[in-house]
Amino acid sequence: MSTPTAPTSVAARARSILEQRGVRPTSQRVRVAELLLTSPCHLTAEQILASLRQSSGRVSKATVYNTLKLFVEQGLARPIHADPERCVYDSTMTPHHHFQDLATGEMIDIPPDQLSFAKMPPLPPGMEVADVEVVVRLRRKA
Ligand SMILES: [Zn+2]
To answer: How far apart are the CA of 71 and the centre of ligand 1, in A?
Structure first.
């Protein structure tokens, strides 16, 4: 990604991401996609809602939640339940781990090859590992 070929607007990129997945690009969906899907990020529904309300007025909470649900169903984003109080939506779909800042809730990606396991407990009979995601919680040093 060194030389951009054409000046593509964020909105146009968001629209094309939705169309590639067969998601009808309504104006609300494009606006959520602009925030969440055009670059790797981690956002809660509340952060998306606040940002949309700041930039362009009226957006219903239900619309944002429904849009996020649709994005998850269509494989565009995935929910990370690192904090039971709030769900963070991750636009990076490939497996990876996270640092989480306990003070701010901010999530930072850890590439999968930078973390490995020395030991895995025996699995319950008849089960196999689907995936492993680690959240390393961080706090400021005293
Ligand atoms: Zn992530």
So the answer is: 15
Which pLDDT value is given to residue 83?
67
* Ion ligand 1, residues whose Cβ is below 5 A away: 90, 92, 109
Cα(125) to centroid(ligand 1), Å: 31
State how far the Cα of 93 lies from the Cα of 16, in Å rounded to an integer.
Answer: 17
Q: What percent of the chain has pLDDT over 90?
A: 66
Beta-carbon contacts of 28 under 8 Å, excluding residues fewer than 6 positions away, are 59, 63, 67
Q: H/E element holding 67?
A: helix 61-73
Q: Distance, CA 134 to ligand 1 centroid (Å)?
A: 11
Instruction: Spell out the domain ranges in the chain.
Output: 10-138
Instruction: Check residue 116 and give its pLDDT.
Output: 85
Task: Tell me the per-residue pLDDT of 115-129, one tens digit each, with 9 for 90 and over.
Answer: 988 888 999 999 999
Q: Quick check: 106 and 112 in contact, CB under 8 A?
A: no
Could you tell me which CATH number the domain at 10-138 has? 1.10.10.10
Scored b (16 or more CB within 10 A) or e, 37-53 reads bbeebbbbbebbbebbe
